[in-house]
Amino acid sequence: MKVLIVGSGGREHALAWKISQSPRVETVFVAPGNAGTAVDAVNVPIEVTDIEGLVKFAKDELIDITVVGPEVPLVLGLVDAMQEEGLKVFGPSKAAAELEGSKVFCKNLLHAANVPTADYRAFRSADDASRYIKDRYSEPNDPVNVVIKADGLAAGKGVIVCDTRSEALEAIDRIAHQREFGEAGKELIIEERLFGQEASVLAITDGETIMTLPAAQDHKPAHDGDTGPNTGGMGAYCPTPIVDEAMMEKVESDVLVPVVHAMKRARRPFKGVLYAGMMLTSAGPKVLEFNVRFGDPECQPLLMRLKTDLIDVIEATIDGRLGELGPLEWDERPSICVVMASEGYPGDYEKGRTIRGLDRAAELPDVKVFHAGTAIDDGRIYNTGGRVLGVTAIGNSISNAKLQAYTAVKEIRWEGAWCRKDISDKALAYKA
After folding, report:
1. Of 183, 194, 386, 198, which is closest to residue 275 (Cα–Cα)?
2. CB of 71 within 8 A of CB of 291?
């Protein structure tokens, strides 16, 4: 079997690594890939937005299954284009991908399906949104506790948490007037700020059967102690003790099942990975957002633990027979992924800096370094993105996995490299 994976991040490297382990798979291609996928698979120089080029490659190479990693090609309709050519592809249609492509659509669907989420208002103009804030808060330093979100895709950065009236007005200006996040800001949402711990619950569904994966916990803020600006994710671990069996059942019954049914009623049947970003509040779990693909970096520790052949799960999802599969098999040991980033991320950063020590990190037991923003030229590996590597380890305990991951981190060097030092500490605090 030939498999094509679309994307170039840590998620796609993890997918390539896991899928290539299947005895059914002969060759894994990754378009466009990175320096890590160049080792574990075969890179193809086609960008994720080149829908025509990806379809042509899949047809010419007689690709058996295409797995779409990131959200952008899903929102652009790559799955539809592949299916029109009779190609097998894993991921939701363009219509179903709007669940992530538009926060307004998502919030409206959650409200209609009676899924617990934050109260919100949607706006099409900066003036209307600013007036809404000004009418409710009179002084610049009045506490507001709201979150301002760009409607469209913004690479995980179009969410601004605001504590005061002036911060909220500044966020509205950045998103809707200055268009800091481009066309993603043509609409925006103002919603109440929820308090609690965040958790990620991912499920694979063929539109009928829902197969829930172990809960993970991402770390969105840039710095230790959940401080600093939001990022695409600075690390994750799996499973998280914060989501116990009872809470998982509640998320399945109150969130996942209603959303799958609501999408079907909306004539947007969902097939692929359904990712619920949850806030575990004092009033119970509430949905922060939905993604329509594996999370990055949650995918890395999840796949590190998965024992079942992933290609069997993917094919059953595409064919609508997920219910015929038995339960997934997991390594009982927990895993942790620490993201190493470029200096300046999530703002501007320098590219082209040589990465050293990858070989030494790879020699450590129970460690896999997944590449994200990297490229290779004549044997030299260098950084090309803000999030550069996802150093992932598995261990007999959370603390053991953390020690192993950070031991590997210390082996890797490039100018300006940095990471959070507290990935998974929430699990240790919870258990204590």
Report:
1. 198
2. yes
Q: What is the mean pLDDT of the chain?
A: 95
52 has pLDDT over 90: yes
**8-state DSSP, 312:** H
Read off the tokens for 398: 């959370």
pLDDT value at residue 138:
84
Alpha carbon dihedral 165, 171, 174, 177, in 10-degree steps, equals -60
Check if CATH label 3.30.470.20 holds for domain 194-432: yes
CATH of 2-94 given 1.10.10.60, 3.30.470.20, 1.10.10.10, 3.40.50.20: 3.40.50.20
- Alpha carbon distance 26, 5 (integer Å): 14
Which residues is 418 bridged to in the sheet? 341
CA 371 to the chain's CA centroid: 15
Residue pair 59/45 in contact (Cβ under 8 Å)? The answer is no
pLDDT digits (tens, 9 = 90+) for 181-212: 998 899 999 999 999 988 999 999 999 999 99
- 240: left (phi > 0), else alpha (psi -120 to 50), else beta? beta
Task: Using alpha carbons, select from 96, 49, 104, 47 the residue that is nearest to residue 76.
Answer: 49
- Dist CA 7 CA 368 (whole Å): 19
